[in-house]
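To assess whether ligand presence alters the predicted conformation, the chain was also submitted together with zinc ion. Input:
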Amino acid sequence: MNYGCPNNQCKFYQKSSQVIKNGHFKRKSDSRYIQKFKCKHCLKQFSKATFTLEKYQKKRRINLKVLEAISSGVSMRRLAKHLRVDKKTIKRKVDYLAKKVEPKNSRFLTKLTRDKVTHMQFDDLITTHHTKLKPLSVSIAVDANRRFILGAKVSTIAAFGHLSKISKRKYGYRKSDHKQALNELFFQIRSCVAKDALVRSDEHMNYPAVVKRHLPLVTHQRFKGGRACIAGQGELKKLSNDPLFCINHTCAMFRANINRLIRKTWCTTKDPSMLQKHIDIFIYYFNQIYLKDVRT
Ligand SMILES: [Zn+2]
């Protein structure tokens, strides 16, 4: 692999013609020998690590552990305790992992455009931003035949039921961007759904418009949600043949494996953008690590 000069003031910026090898160093954080380079023109020194997302990281050894643990129901604070690092380190690791998995997730979707989804199911999962007075919604779409999670988007919604009055009094008017999130989700995944696919959902009023807009030729079937059974965190239903089983099961997987989504818990989301990052990391883990293990 050729490395170009990283100095943007240099005449040979991003060109490898003037770059020569310049020894190596032993990286303390993971005991690896790293090749160093030098640009002959501007004398700038750099190494293989300069071009990676992990640049300047001091705790590389825990990256994989963090990925696996936060996708397996461990909270960020408990993980910090467990790995003997600060909770801020875990927060930074989540930021880093979210950046790391983003191209991997989009590559996965690109792969699916060649092998399209013929049966899609989608639904919303309700969670809270610190308190039940500030609910959040996670719109999730799955491939019902192969269990892949196609995407998930977090949005704010207004409090409902008897909490709506209290919420308004305490926090003021709460804008709902649920429709926008649904549109973003469908825009992201529409190229991997077959034109004549079967799409199933429940009877939420925002769904028909978004399906019609992004996937006009598909067959959209809507079902009434059943009563929850005890297992599956209220997501699995008490029906003998649940037509929305795949999406309900995936939602139950979300609740069981993303600590902040567990019902009746102390661990809640304090920042919706972190929830989105956590979900993106989980989607990568589920599609590309967990399902592979299940299949083989
Ligand atoms: Zn240079």
